[in-house]
Amino acid sequence: MNIDTIFRALADPTRLRIMRLLSAMELAVGELAQVLGQSQPRVSRHVGILCDAGLAERRREGSWVFLRMQGGVEQASPLVEAIARLLAIAEAEDQDFGQSCAEDMRKLAAIRTAREETAEGYFARHAGEWDELRRLHSSDSEVEKVLARALGDAPLGTLLDIGTGTGRMAELFADSAERIVALDKSLEMLRIARAKLQHLPTEQIELVQGDLGDLPFAAASFDTIVIHQVLHFVQDPALALLEAARVTRPGGRIAIVDFAAHNHEELRDRHAHARLGFSDAQLRDLLFDAGFEPEAPQALDGEQLTVKIWLGERRSNPLSTPAKERTA
User: Fold this and answer.
1) Within a 13 Å sphere around the CA of 255, how many CA atoms are in the beta-carbon half?
2) R_g of the chain, CA atoms, integer Å
3) Where does the pLDDT of residue 279 fall: very low under 50, low under 70, confident under 90, or very high at 90 and above?
4) How many CA atoms lie within 13 A of 122 on its CB side?
5) How far from each other are the two terminal CA atoms of the chain, in whole angstroms?
6) What is the number of other CB atoms lying within 10 angstroms of the CB of residue 14?
7) Of 209, 214, 291, whose CA–CA distance to 249 is shortest?
8) What are 7-27's pLDDT values in tens digits?
């Protein structure tokens, strides 16, 4: 990094606001344009300057471009971390900058709330046919066989099924887990899951309404985490995995089933997908930054979409500490 280039990059109010937003989360360039009230080409020029200075980095996903601080919030360089701290101080002490930042965060929250409501509406409309919809994308039976083999024959202990939907994962692992907690944000989904799982002993299965970005559980509560065909709906996958790591015991395992990176843009509108799948490198970094040691992924090719299974083991002494533990 060249210090002159860095200070020139920061010598603009819009770019300062962008850096302040990126200190909180990864954002799509389109989201930045909406928040800042500027055209996307203009915001892209600002983004280019920040990236050229080594302060931010891009990640393309289909026709969308996502932006984050260089190295990410968890693994940023000391210089980028220092800039983030400086901007936090400026927000607190400079009234005008503080007001701009507060308004930016308010607008961002409104944009994300609207997208989450769109996704929730989609879930509510299709809750009764959810298993059928999933079969349009891949062979669930084959995925389930590979997932069961990947987790092995050992007892799964206390298992958390994040985004349980109709409860299929809870049903699948009922015989190999001591206890299962099936979590979903949608009450309609939980109603269907409850009906599907009613044959299981009540002491073995618990259904909980909750948000995967703010799990209503104490730290180190679970031995196994399953996130099945959920992560592509999530606006902030890094936060979701930090939360998953927080509630996983050291040595516990996580299994993520989702799509490999693809270019089916129509899934954003037709099926409320926030992400067009994930690359192995992206999931590896997300898992590692959250506190998991990634394992080799497994792939199941389909006609149009490839389903991947990414595994990880919770490290006893993670290099990055989950957000909730840092602020506790």
Assistant:
1) 23
2) 21
3) very high
4) 16
5) 34
6) 16
7) 291
8) 999 999 999 999 999 987 778
What are all long-range contacts of 125-130, with beta carbons under 8 Å and residues at least 24 apart?
127/166, 127/186, 127/188, 127/189, 127/191, 127/192, 128/192, 130/165, 130/166, 130/189, 130/192
Residues 6+ apart with CB under 8 A from 98: 90, 91, 92
**Considering Cα of 281, then 293, then 27, then 208, what sign does the dihedral take?**
positive
**Dihedral sign computed on CA atoms, order 112, 283, 272, 216:** negative
Residue 133, CB-side half-sphere exposure with 13 Å CA sphere: 15
DSSP alpha helix (H) spans, 11-94: 13-22, 29-36, 40-52, 78-93
Q: Please check whether residue 165 is in contact with residue 122, taking contact to mean a CB–CB distance below 8 angstroms.
A: no
Of 254, 326, 328, which Cα lies nearest the Cα of 287?
Answer: 254
pLDDT digits over 38-72, tens only? 999 999 999 999 999 999 998 776 677 888 888 76
Residue 74 clears pLDDT 70, i.e. is over it = no
The C-alpha atoms of residue 321 and residue 316 are separated, in whole angstroms, by 11
pTM, rounded to two decimals:
0.65
Beta strands 27-28 and 64-69, pairing class? antiparallel
Instruction: Tell me the three state secondary structure of residue 26.
Output: coil
CB atoms within 10 A of CB 229: 22
